[in-house]
Amino acid sequence: MTELAISTRVNSSFEDTVEATRKALSEQGFGVLTEIDMQSTLKAKIDADIERYVILGACNPRLAKGAIDTDRQVGLLLPCNVVVRADGDNTIVEAMNPQLMVGLSAAPGLSDVADEATALLQAAIDTLDGESTTA
User: Fold this and answer.
1) Cβ neighbours, 10 Å, residue 9
2) Any bridge partners for residue 31, and if so which?
3) What DSSP string runs through 41-91?
4) What per-residue confidence (pLDDT) applies to 132?
5) Can you tell me the distance from the alpha carbon of 59 to that of 4, in angstroms, rounded to the nearest whole number?
């Protein structure tokens, strides 16, 4: 079974980790297209309280083009979501594992795109100096 996320736990403030994650993604060719502050949204919409939790919609245009060229429906899985969330004194960063696309579409060539995306996201996560895992 393919793991859901590539993740790390860092001993850094939430704000610093969000900024470091944006930088790490950028260094690997990803831009952040969307940012959803789940804590604020859930509080405003349904008066629910959760920890600091941000979803970054990251996109590497070259890889996105390669993925949708192999299977137009893969766009349903884009952009790559990266979650930064508070966990006590630590912050967790989790990137959606691109290998999930391969399990959902048998399109020829998608495996190569997913392999490259996985390597780049793993490299970004690794620069955050945490305890990296695939979970």
Assistant:
1) 18
2) 59
3) HHHHHH------EEEEEEE-HHHHHHHHHH-GGGGGG-SEEEEEEEETTEE
4) 52
5) 18
